[in-house]
Amino acid sequence: MSFFHAGPAPKGLGPRPGALRDGLGLQAGMKVGLFGGSFNPAHDGHAHVAETAMRRLDLDRVVWLVSPQNPLKSNHETAPLSERMASARGVAKTVGPAMIVSDFETRSGVQWTIDTLRLLKARYPGVQFVWLMGSDNLASFHRWRGWTDIMHLMPVAVIARPGSQLDSRTAPAASRYARFRIPAPRAGLLPSLQAPAWTYLTAPLNPRSSTAMRATAGRHPAEG
Ligand SMILES: Nc1ncnc2c1ncn2[C@@H]1O[C@H](COP(=O)(O)OP(=O)(O)OP(=O)(O)O)[C@@H](O)[C@H]1O
Ligand SMILES: O=C(O)c1ccc[n+]([C@@H]2O[C@H](COP(=O)([O-])O)[C@@H](O)[C@H]2O)c1
């Protein structure tokens, strides 16, 4: 199992003996954010999501799950996994030692988030997981495979992203699960709640996107 801790484990939360063999080094009782992404490349918007979730949900760890390939995106622009892992490691390091960057999905041969989350829940029964995503993904969440199963599997925290806030608040997933929404000031309770439970964390916003970074990187210097 390949994984990467972005620094020494925080004091008192180091992996127990044998934890490295388990893969991610997660221990029962930990509150852990699962942050899936293409990270093509990673950027400070991702750091913003991880930091916001750590602070507002009072998490012990955030696992950056570098996806083999978003099943809803075209693969022709997706950089090799090794490059995206390196990119995610570089950015995760800026957030701190509670970040874990993992190719768990590739190693496990899964692509759909529902399968990933079921595997992780089965493997770490005592861990309190929360699925993390930007609000653009809440807007299209009803198109994900088994999205209602995801809602019933673990709590979900949505971090506001510029350009998708209105969309996501009126999204089918938001309406369908409106009565399970936890007000943001009580988001610290989320990891310990039984699913379905979700929250929407607003402001401050970070405008960065991988698409914009790829566009800039691809532009000829003379184009400015
Ligand atoms: N600036 C941001 N603010 C809030 N959430 C973000 C931000 N950037 C990315 N995310 C979230 O991070 C997760 C992984 O995103 P991803 O790796 O696809 O980056 P991206 O910038 O959205 O990429 P692309 O532009 O290629 O679609 C998604 O849940 C996405 O919503
Ligand atoms: O399982 C699905 O149907 C599904 C559809 C779209 C995206 N996802 C996951 O959502 C996460 C964010 O994807 P992306 O490409 O926006 O970074 C990543 O872990 C994807 O595997 C999952």
What class, by secondary structure content?
Answer: alpha/beta
Tell me the number of helical segments per DSSP (H or I, 4 or more residues long).
Answer: 10
Beta-strand proportion:
15-25%
State the low-pLDDT regions, or none.
11-22
Main β sheet profile: 7 strands, mixed
Topology pattern, helix = H, strand = E: EHEHEHEHHEHHEHHEH
Helix content: 25-40%
Instruction: Report mean pLDDT, rounded to a whole number.
Output: 89
Catalogue the ligands: adenosine-5'-triphosphate, nicotinate mononucleotide
Described by the principal axes of the CA atoms, the overall outline is globular
Cα-based radius of gyration, to the nearest Å: 17 Å
What's the arrangement of strands in the largest beta sheet?
A: 1-4-3-2-5-6-7
In whole angstroms, the N-to-C terminal distance is: 43 Å
DSSP strand count: 7
Protein name: Probable nicotinate-nucleotide adenylyltransferase
Function: Catalyzes the reversible adenylation of nicotinate mononucleotide (NaMN) to nicotinic acid adenine dinucleotide (NaAD).
Pathway: Cofactor biosynthesis; NAD(+) biosynthesis; deamido-NAD(+) from nicotinate D-ribonucleotide: step 1/1
Family: Belongs to the NadD family.
